[in-house]
Amino acid sequence: MEQDLNGKTALVTGAARRIGAAIARRLHAAGANVVLHYRGAEAEAAALEAELNALRAASALKVKADLLAPIAPKALVGATRDRFGGLDLLVNNASSFYPTAVGAIEAGHWDELIGSNLRAPLFLSQEAAPELAKRGGAIVNIADIHSDRPLKGYAVYSIAKAGLAAMTRSLALELGPAVRVNAVSPGAIAWPDDGQFAPPERERIVATTPMSRLGTPEEIAQAVHFLASAPFVTGQILAVDGGRSVYL
Q1: DSSP letters of 21-78?
Q2: Could you tell me whether strands 138-142 and 89-92 are parallel, antiparallel, or unpaired per DSSP bridges?
Q3: Rounded-to-integer distance, Cα 127 and Cα 185, Å
Q4: Alpha-carbon distance 35 to 18, whole Å?
Q5: Strands 138-142 and 33-38, how do they pair?
Q6: I need a labelling partner for 163 at 20 to 30 A (CA). Which of 59, 88, 155, 174 fits?
Q7: pTM for the full model?
Q8: pLDDT tens digits, residue range 99-132?
Q9: How far is CA 195 from CA 92, 198, 201, in A?
Q10: By three-state DSSP, how is residue 183 classified?
Q11: Which residues are catalytic?
């Protein structure tokens, strides 16, 4: 892989596992220093930090934070600046995902799903923007195919991701030309660990994906890397969904 991110620093939220970890590994392999945000996955974050530092000394830092805490944006950006001197790329990947049936939606569901998928990315982007502007940096948000096509039974999550897509376009206007802002919109990549989607539903989703398979976290990471390195791309939402958005 061409190391086109040599000397740059990336902050990836939700970086300990799954898609976030794949993004961190990809950016690191391209030469970037990486700050690995996590909330509860301490062991996984520590293992990834050790793995990356073994490949290149002092190139990775794990930072624990609850993104819904008001102090989190300042703490994360400050830790990044203190360790690596600045920030070139923010990847808003951390997300909560679970169903919310209309008629049973509670305020706590709204606070968590909107908080993790929209509020936290907005306030973290706002805090990071001055540091990113100093270096002509970028923001990449992880949206969702359901930001445009709501997922039945997941109303609050779909609303949150629709807001994130709108935020992506809005911040591209607000922060340009100094900072580029884009998003990756995944389709079915990896099934939730908690068993959401019964086997027949999983089979249906794959069957209605033109590529006839799930995507991989590494394919999302590849798209993030592209958007991090594309100097004339901003305000775009790149679907990486095996063509499923054509079907829906």
Answers
A1: HHHHHHHHHTT-EEEEEESS-HHHHHHHHHHHHHHSTT-EEEEE--TTSTTHHHHHHH
A2: parallel
A3: 23
A4: 16
A5: unpaired
A6: 88
A7: 0.96
A8: 999 999 999 999 999 999 999 999 999 999 999 9
A9: 24, 7, 12
A10: strand
A11: 157
